[in-house]
Amino acid sequence: MSAAHDLSGLPQAASADLQQIVTFRIDDRTLGVEVEAVREIKGWQPTTPLPNAASHVLGVINLRGAIIAVYDLRRRLGLGPAEVSRSSVVIVVDLGERLAGILVDAVSDIIDMPRSSFRAAPDIAGEGDDALKALLVRGNDVIALLDLSAIVRETPI
């Protein structure tokens, strides 16, 4: 295994070498995804559980006729099950061939990040390790940029 993840697959920003990132919270952690992958952000709604689904798959919802799987990001990252609150939201992401939802504690912001602030994620070989695409340095803060295809790789239906 290499000591770092390859950053060559990260999207290139069109203007001034900037990438727009949707940031959100899981406990005291700030994470993000590329804005072009986000289709919409919606409030929590109960899911329909599916038999034999992975433990981090909460179930499915009907989003205007499209059935999408909703993933508990907290559990997928090895942080225990999510506790739904008034600020909990589902970020609906477009993975090209399908839509998926990820449950997060709250959405924070949309930020512009220069490519020079992207760092390779360390190879830590822990639960959820493959879910990191890069780390973004913003002042004294570090934002974990998620690899959505790794988060939702299991197909529950």
Task: Name the descriptors.
CheW-like_dom_sf, mainly beta, CheW-lke_dom, globular, 6-stranded mixed beta sheet, single chain, 157 residues, disordered N terminus, OB fold (Dihydrolipoamide Acetyltransferase, E2P), 5-stranded mixed beta sheet, CheW, Chemotaxis protein CheW
How is this structure best described in words?
- This protein is mainly beta.
- It has one domain: CheA-289, Domain 4 (OB fold (Dihydrolipoamide Acetyltransferase, E2P), Beta Barrel).
- The chain contains 2 helices and 11 strands.
- Strands 8-1-2-11-10-9 form a 6-stranded mixed sheet. It has a 5-stranded mixed sheet with strand order 3-6-7-5-4.
- The protein is globular and about 45 Å long.
- The termini are far apart.
List the helices and strands and how they pair.
Layout (H helix, E strand, L loop, with lengths): L17 E9 L2 E6 L3 E6 L13 E7 L2 E7 H4 L12 E6 L4 E6 L1 E9 L3 E2 L12 E7 L2 E6 L1 H4 L6
Protein name: Chemotaxis protein CheW
InterPro entries: CheW (IPR039315), CheW-like_dom_sf (IPR036061), CheW-lke_dom (IPR002545)
Organism: Alsobacter ponti
Mean pLDDT: 84
Strand order of the largest sheet: 8-1-2-11-10-9
Rg of Cα set: 15 Å
Q: With helices defined by DSSP (H or I, 4 residues minimum), what is the helix count? A: 2
Give the CA-based shape: globular
> What is the H/E order?
EEEEEHEEEEEEH
- What is the terminal-to-terminal distance? 32 Å
**Oligomer class:** single chain
Proportion in helices: under 10%
In CATH, what is the homologous superfamily? CheA-289, Domain 4
The count of strands amounts to 11
Question: Which architecture per CATH?
Answer: Beta Barrel
The largest sheet is: 6 strands, mixed
Q: In the CATH hierarchy, what is the class?
A: Mainly Beta
**What is the CATH topology classification name?**
OB fold (Dihydrolipoamide Acetyltransferase, E2P)
* Low-confidence blocks of residues: 1-14
Give the number of domains: 1
SS class = mainly beta
Give the percentage of residues in beta strands: over 45%
